[in-house]
Each structure stands twice: as C-alpha cells, then as structure tokens.
Amino acid sequence: MVCAHILVAEDNVHQAELVRRYLEHDGHSVVVVHDGRAAIDETRRRNPDLLVLDVMMPLVDGIDVMRAIRTESDVPIVLLTARSTEDEVLLGFDLGADDYITKPFRPRQMVARVRTILRRTGRARETSATVLKVGDLTIDPVRHEVHIKDELISLTPAEFRLLAKMAAQPQRVFTREQLLEDGFITARTVDVHMMKLRRKIEQDPRRPERLLTVYGIGYKLA
C-alpha cells in the first residue's frame, strides 16, 4: 500500500467529510478546505501530493483555482463536478486536470482512481514510513490503530486525526487555530476531543504526562 498528503477542496461539508474518511481509510493524510481561495493558499503552503478539487466553489471556482495552481505547480488534480458536458470535461483536461469524476460518484472508485494517479505520477510513498512513535505510543495511519505498548486504544476518527497530527511533530505546541484547520468546528470542540483523548491515553487524565496543555497557547504531545 502507498500513502500521500492530499488536499480536498469541496464546499459541501458532508461530501468533503465523506471523501476525507475514504481517503484516510486508504492510508492518506487529508486536509479539507471549503472555498477556492483557501484551496490556492493551502496548495501553496502545504505542497500536497494530490488535490481533489470541486468545480463549483465559493470565492474562486475550481476551474480558476486550477488555472492559478497550474502556473506554479504540477500537483496532480482530480476534479469533482456535477457538470459533465463534453466541453466542460475537455476544458478541465486542457487546463491540466489528471482525472474528472462526475457527481454522484462511488467513494471507493474515487479512492481507486486517486491511487492510480499517485502511482503514475510517482507521488505515492510506502506506508511503512508513516507509522508514528512517541515514547510507548504508536500511531498507524494506514490501519487507523493506536497502541500503548501492546494495548490497542479505540479512538474516534476525529480523535485519531488530532493525535496523528500532533504525533507527527512531537513537542511542537499547536494552537487551537492550527488544530481547527483539520475540520473541527469550534475551539471548544478541540478542547472536548483533547479531554476525551486524555481519558484514553493517560494513566491519570487529571495529571497528563503525554497530552499537555500549554496555557495561553494550545496543546503538545510530549
């Protein structure tokens, strides 16, 4: 299996979360944005391995996003659209799309096509390199499993995303705003997930030794 860093730009929150879940289940790390301007900014900032791009988006539509990105990046782009006329499809390919998926689509087929593009473009990486270890904590993004020593810890998808993001850069202090980038709705939601995570990975959640609060800033994984 292979994995990649994927940016999903989709203004429909339910559709974006569906795409995210299926791609993460396939072993990829996924960031979601909901408008075209954010898609351009995040592509420049994160340099993803692949962009899943909805055509109909606020602020800047997907076609103009692709025009902007193609002036500075050859990142593979998969277009998602409810418009499927031949002229529109040809325009997408002419501007540099690598694939074109018409809504409604089957998520598993979308994942398979993403996998094919990643292999063809050489953007995919072996998943064995994605296993994260912080002390006796092991996070496997491919299997979506977390172990403390030999004990399997059951996490929700949101808890797993938070923990994996922090485990990729242990000792880094993440602000709530940085954690909100991964799709959490409010800063309070981040706090609730952190509280639940502590109950699962700390010996004494009231005196955490792994998931630490940095007062006035945010959280870090020690």
UniProtKB/TrEMBL annotation:
A GO CC annotation given for this chain: cytosol
Positions of post-translational 4-aspartylphosphate modification: D54
Protein species of origin: Lentzea atacamensis
Listed SMART domains: REC, Trans_reg_C
CDD domains membership: REC_OmpR (cd17574), trans_reg_C (cd00383)
Single GO BP term: regulation of DNA-templated transcription
Gene3D superfamilies the UniProt entry points to: 3.40.50.2300, 6.10.250.690, Winged helix-like DNA-binding domain superfamily/Winged helix DNA-binding domain (1.10.10.10)
Protein name in UniProt: DNA-binding response OmpR family regulator
Record-level Gene Ontology MF annotations: phosphorelay response regulator activity; transcription cis-regulatory region binding
Keyword set includes Ligase: no
Keyword vocabulary terms for this entry: DNA-binding, Phosphoprotein, Transcription, Transcription regulation, Two-component regulatory system
Residues in the DNA-binding region annotation: 129-222
Domain Response regulatory: 5-118
Residues of the OmpR/PhoB-type domain: 129-222
